[in-house]
Amino acid sequence: MLSKEEEQFYQQWEKERVQPQYKRRPFLRGLSVGLLIGLVVLVISELGWYERAQMVANRRGNETWIIIAILVISIGFGWLYQQFTSEMNEQRFQELKHIKNKK
After folding, report:
1. Half-sphere exposure of residue 48, counting CA atoms within 13 Å on the CB side?
2. Does pLDDT of 35 surpass 80?
3. Of 85, 73, 68, 71, which Cα lies nearest the Cα of 29?
4. Cβ–Cβ under 8 Å, residues 88 and 17
5. Among 5, 51, 74, 103, which lies 20 to 30 A Cα-Cα from 58?
6. What is the pLDDT of residues 50-68, one digit of tens each?
7. CB 80 within 8 A of CB 30
8. pTM of this structure
9. What per-residue confidence (pLDDT) applies to 91?
């Protein structure tokens, strides 16, 4: 027997699974995590605790490339998180479908 929450999820995902898989909320959540990781990398690099890496970074003047790389990685992380969320919902749906059909 499915609980009320599981039944609501089953009904909702049964409707949503035929629609395109692009969802804004999981993408933005993954994007924000990617940007947070990028911010941590920037803070660590600006603190200068690793002198050799700081010398190489200052010599080449690649601040623009670092920002572009952080943006690309953040967008990729957002897309991956979106796909992961969709796959987890589909797996949960299949499990609930199996339980529902079993009884």
Report:
1. 3
2. yes
3. 85
4. no
5. 74
6. 777 677 766 666 677 888 8
7. yes
8. 0.72
9. 93
- In SS3 terms, the chain reads as CCCHHHHHHHHHHHHHCCCCCCCHHHHHHHHHHHHHHHHHHHHHHHHCCCHHHHHHHHHHCCHHHHHHHHHHHHHHHHHHHHHHHHHHHHHHHHHHHHHHHHC
Instruction: Give the tokens for residue 16.
Output: 């949503």
Most trustworthy range by pLDDT among 14-28, 34-48, 88-102: 88-102
Residue 36: how many CB atoms within 10 A of its CB?
12
Place of tokens 């959540």: 29
